[in-house]
Q: What sequence folds into this?
């Protein structure tokens, strides 16, 4: 009820009259929803998406055969925190206070208290909701020191771990939650269950191994880095076992900490891929999918459960691309770049939706979609109406999933974002990058001299999926059209139909310098 009063009221008929976003009727029996988010898994790491993959992900592939395989799916950002924000809010991450980079393990909550989340929407529509895994959206630790400026705190500030955190998953619509605050290489290494730390850490741990790296930080007595993935999987399976006994539909957001660093496959997976430790870790992620699907099957709820599987961004260079290339494997498939980059390898990800009771099995689509689209999809599943100030960048995937007649393309355009906060916009086969370099970790980097490069990049992805031939000088009219469209998306605070909204923070920030050039007619 609190979320209903805080966020929205039901006005379905009015909404349907003014918005083209939701085009189909809500489902009569909303499914259970299990959203599995891998961490730093590349498009080419899943054999269902890469015919040349040296990693045979048999369980993820089976999931693809049981549902829809989206071959042109994108995260809203090329790094983790921003993508997670977009999944839970249906809003581009750069509209939040975080204009670039990611949060730390001690960062304060990124999701605004008044902002509707998909967990709250589902909770208010009869779902039991749960989060298990890597949060990385910030929550408010009970600091013992002044935390007015979190960025100026020490790398391991003093926290009273006996007290609950504030503005955590339990305050964002999750009835049950179990996980940790940042990435598995970011302290503190402490599990938090329903906003309460499960231990009071006394000791610190650190790993300087290239692949098994994690930063020095306080570590709970019940926290073992190598066992985190199987431990979280057990928690997710236990949740399914509990909820499957009742009639209430459930939503499980299972955010894996893998195959992100530290790359720590357990003993049974070491050497299994015949590639390297990263490949072994990917196969362990594949086995996690097996365990989740089997839990649903054993409880007799697989048919009425929608499983969504994807990754938060492209593969990290920590996987060691050169080492993998020696055995003929490319985590980015045919695409340029990797995690952090504005190029396709940074944000094009495997994306699968399976719901045996309603979705036709074994079909693929090249419809362009984004991780922001989950919230509008969930709203249509339940028949809920989204308020004008929520899910501003979310389109329902239901017309595609149900193979209904709909106006194509589903999305007018899709905005991409790099770790440095650099922008790109995709419409049809055209992709305009509003920066001369990668905006991330691959060449050309911002630390290098970019002055001799064109200030923007334009690629025809149909002819040039590897983004090798910059056509910015050949198609000035396309550059202007896409620049104007992105400017409108920024200025109006949304990319879906509806009234204009306000972005958080200043109206303009450093990475919008291209808007100033547009305004001045340059």
A:
């Amino acid at each position: 009820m609190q979320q209903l009063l805080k966020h929205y009221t039901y006005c379905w008929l009015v909404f349907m009259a003014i918005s083209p976003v939701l085009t189909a009727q809500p489902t009569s029996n909303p499914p259970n929803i299990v959203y599995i988010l891998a961490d730093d898994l590349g498009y080419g790491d899943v054999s269902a998406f890469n015919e040349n993959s040296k990693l045979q992900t048999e369980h993820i592939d089976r999931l693809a055969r049981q549902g829809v395989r989206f071959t042109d799916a994108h995260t809203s950002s090329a790094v983790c925190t921003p993508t997670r924000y977009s999944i839970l809010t249906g809003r581009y991450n750069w509209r939040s206070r975080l204009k670039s980079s990611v949060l730390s393990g001690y960062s304060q909550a990124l999701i605004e208290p008044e902002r509707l989340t998909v967990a709250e929407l589902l909770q208010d529509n009869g779902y039991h909701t749960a989060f298990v895994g890597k949060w990385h959206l910030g929550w408010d630790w009970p600091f013992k020191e002044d935390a007015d400026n979190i960025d100026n705190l020490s790398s391991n500030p003093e926290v009273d771990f006996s007290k609950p955190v504030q503005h955590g998953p339990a305050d964002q619509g999750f009835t049950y939650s179990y996980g940790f605050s940042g990435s598995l290489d970011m302290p503190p290494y402490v599990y938090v269950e329903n906003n309460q730390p499960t231990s009071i850490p006394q000791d610190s741990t650190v790993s300087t191994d290239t692949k098994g790296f994690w930063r020095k930080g306080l570590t709970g007595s019940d926290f073992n880095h190598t066992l985190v993935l199987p431990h979280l999987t057990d928690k997710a399976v236990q949740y399914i076992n509990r909820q499957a006994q009742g009639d209430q539909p459930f939503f499980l957001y299972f955010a894996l900490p893998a195959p992100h660093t530290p790359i720590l496959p357990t003993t049974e997976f070491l050497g299994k891929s015949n590639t390297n430790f990263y490949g072994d870790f990917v196969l362990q992620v594949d086995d996690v999918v097996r365990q989740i699907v089997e839990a649903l099957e054993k409880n007799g709820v697989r048919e009425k459960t929608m499983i969504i599987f994807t990754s938060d961004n492209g593969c990290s260079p920590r996987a060691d691309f050169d080492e993998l290339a020696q055995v003929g494997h490319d985590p980015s498939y045919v695409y340029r770049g990797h995690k952090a980059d504005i190029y396709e390898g940074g944000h094009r990800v495997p994306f699968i939706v399976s719901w045996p009771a309603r979705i036709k099995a074994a079909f693929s689509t090249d419809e362009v979609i984004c991780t922001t689209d989950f919230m509008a999809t969930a709203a249509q599943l339940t028949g809920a109406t989204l308020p004008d100030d929520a899910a501003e960048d979310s389109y329902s995937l239901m017309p595609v999933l149900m193979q209904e007649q709909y106006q194509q393309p589903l999305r007018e355009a899709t905005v991409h974002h790099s770790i440095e906060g650099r922008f790109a916009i995709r419409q049809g086969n055209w992709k305009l990058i509003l920066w001369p370099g990668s905006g991330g970790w691959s060449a050309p980097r911002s630390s290098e001299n970019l002055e001799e490069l064109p200030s923007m990049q334009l690629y025809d992805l149909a002819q040039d999926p590897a983004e090798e031939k910059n056509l910015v000088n050949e198609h000035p009219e396309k550059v202007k059209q896409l620049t104007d469209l992105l400017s409108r998306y920024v200025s109006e605070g949304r990319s879906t139909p509806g009234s204009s909204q306000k972005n958080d923070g200043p109206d303009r920030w450093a990475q919008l310098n291209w808007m100033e050039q547009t305004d001045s007619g340059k």
